[in-house]
Each structure stands twice: as structure tokens, then as C-alpha cells.
Design a protein that fits this description.
By secondary structure, this protein is of the alpha/beta class. It has 5 helices and 12 strands. It has one domain (14-106, 127-222): CoaB-like (Rossmann fold), CATH 3.40.50.10300. It has helices at residues 39-50, 78-89, 131-136, 155-165, 206-222; strands at residues 14-19, 24-27, 30-32, 54-59, 71-74, 94-97, 104-106, 125-127, 144-151, 170-175, 187-194, 197-205. The radius of gyration is 18 Å and the shape is globular. Bound molecules: cytidine-5'-triphosphate and calcium ion (CA). This is Coenzyme A biosynthesis bifunctional protein CoaBC.
Length: 223
């Protein structure tokens, strides 16, 4: 169980984890975001702590309690998360991008509240930086880099494409077309992919899956 004593296989290692959604402001009172609860990222942080690691947790706005022994970095936007992640990545052995980063932000952040006008309005968005791709692309002090992929179809294909395109060491994929699991659930079903292998971790609590993922990372790190 979650309380069980684990062998300290990550002692001496620093793990940095991004978690939760990002929030992209439109004006002082409005934003674009998503339904990420942060539960998976926070569970990974707990698992890494249980295995003896030092943990940096970069978190978007969530409503759950952080693990007390993690070093917490609160961020809101993808740009803030990007800056925090790149700063911490070079001093990390392992980087896990579990956050649901908003792909786009407003092209034109308003400093005053946007006033209602005509019957239609158009928002122009610009692409956010790809945080995990930038971490995996570091030329010095690059950590072992693990991503997540939430897909509604062709899960294995899309996950392997992300593994290759973002130059990740590992990617954890889940099928979010299954309404019972994922985003706000306490459970998840994951398949983990790496360059020359894969492992189906099945449907479990996010706590149990997190221990499996951290164990898998630890063994790939050595191998
Ligand atoms: N990610 C990131 N920075 C972004 C977008 C995504 O670091 N700007 C990370 C996520 O934290 C996750 C991985 O990339 O670890 C995959 O995220 P996902 O949204 O599935 O992939 P995208 O590359 O954004 O592609 P798409 O949303 O079109 O499927
Ligand atoms: Ca995305």
C-alpha cells in the first residue's frame, strides 16, 4: 500500500515533476485552462519521496494538498512553468512532465477587463513553448526525461511519435476516451513506452501506478 516502506532506490537522486493544469490569462479576471486535477503528478511526487529522492514539484493551480517533503514551486502560466522547469532541470537526475500544459495562450493579454461587444468575438492564440521538449533538448546536464500522453485514439502510435519528436527517454500513455479513468479520477490505466520496449501497467490507483513508474524509471536509468 501507500504506507508500505519502500527500498530507497532513488536515494541521492533529484526528481523534478510538473503537475496540474496551466492557466492562460486573457485579462485580469479571465483565463483559459483545462480539467487536470494534479493527482497523477502529486502521486508521482509522493512515490519519488517514498523511494528516497529529493523532489521538486512545479505545480499549476490545483485544489489538492502537496506532499509535505517536496519543494513546491507554484506557477500559473505555461511560460512560468517553462522558466521554472528549465531552471530546475539542469540540477535534476530525472524530469517528469505530468502537467497538462495549455498548448496556446492569448496573443494579446489585456491589462483591463475585456468589455462585451458584438454577437461574436474572436480570440487569437499563440503557441506556448514545449516545456518537456526543451528539457529533453538540453545539451548540458540533461536529466532522464519522462513525458505523459493523453490520447483519445491511436494511443500507442501517437505516444511513440511524441517519444521520438520530443526526444524523451520514456512516455506514459493513457487512453482518455475511457471516461472512468484519467483527469479527475483516482485511478488510471497506463502503458509506458521507451525506445526499444514497452510495458502495460494496467488499471490501478494513481499511487500504485506512480510507484511502478518510479521503479521502471530507476531500472531504465541504471540500464
Ligand atoms: N508538454 C509540455 N509543454 C507543452 C505541451 C505539452 O511540456 N507546451 C508535455 C506534457 O506535459 C506531456 C507531453 O508534453 O508530458 C505530451 O503532452 P500532450 O498534450 O499529450 O502533447 P502535445 O505535444 O501538446 O500534443 P497534442 O496536445 O496535440 O496531442
Ligand atoms: Ca497538448
Amino acid at each position: 500500500s501507500n504506507e508500505e516502506k519502500q527500498p530507497l532506490i532513488l536515494a541521492g537522486k533529484t526528481v523534478t515533476i510538473t503537475a496540474g493544469p496551466t492557466r492562460e490569462a486573457l485579462d485580469p479576471v479571465r483565463f483559459i485552462s483545462n480539467h487536470s486535477s494534479g493527482k497523477m503528478g502529486y502521486a508521482l511526487a509522493n512515490a519519488a519521496l517514498q523511494l528516497g529522492a529529493k523532489v521538486n514539484l512545479i505545480s499549476g493551480p490545483v485544489s489538492i494538498q502537496p506532499p509535505s517533503n517536496a519543494k513546491l514551486f507554484h506557477v500559473e502560466s505555461a511560460l512560468e512553468m517553462h522558466q521554472s522547469a528549465l531552471k530546475l532541470a539542469t540540477e535534476s537526475d530525472i524530469f517528469i512532465g505530468c502537467a497538462a500544459v495549455a498548448d496556446y495562450r492569448s496573443a494579446d493579454l489585456q491589462t483591463q477587463k475585456i468589455k462585451k461587444q458584438g454577437d461574436e468575438m474572436t480570440l487569437t492564440l499563440v503557441k506556448n513553448p514545449d516545456i518537456i521538449a526543451d528539457v529533453a533538448g538540453l545539451s548540458h546536464s540533461r536529466p532522464f526525461t519522462v513525458g505523459f500522453a493523453a490520447e483519445t485514439q491511436n494511443v500507442a502510435d501517437y505516444a511513440r511519435k511524441k517519444l521520438i519528436n520530443k526526444k524523451l527517454d520514456m512516455i506514459c500513455a493513457n487512453d482518455v476516451s475511457n471516461q472512468a479513468i484519467g483527469f479527475n479520477s483516482d485511478h488510471n490505466a497506463l502503458t509506458v513506452f521507451w525506445s526499444n520496449g514497452q510495458q502495460d501497467l494496467g488499471l490501478h490507483s494513481k499511487e500504485a501506478l506512480s510507484l511502478s513508474i518510479m521503479n521502471l524509471i530507476s531500472s531504465r536509468l541504471k540500464g
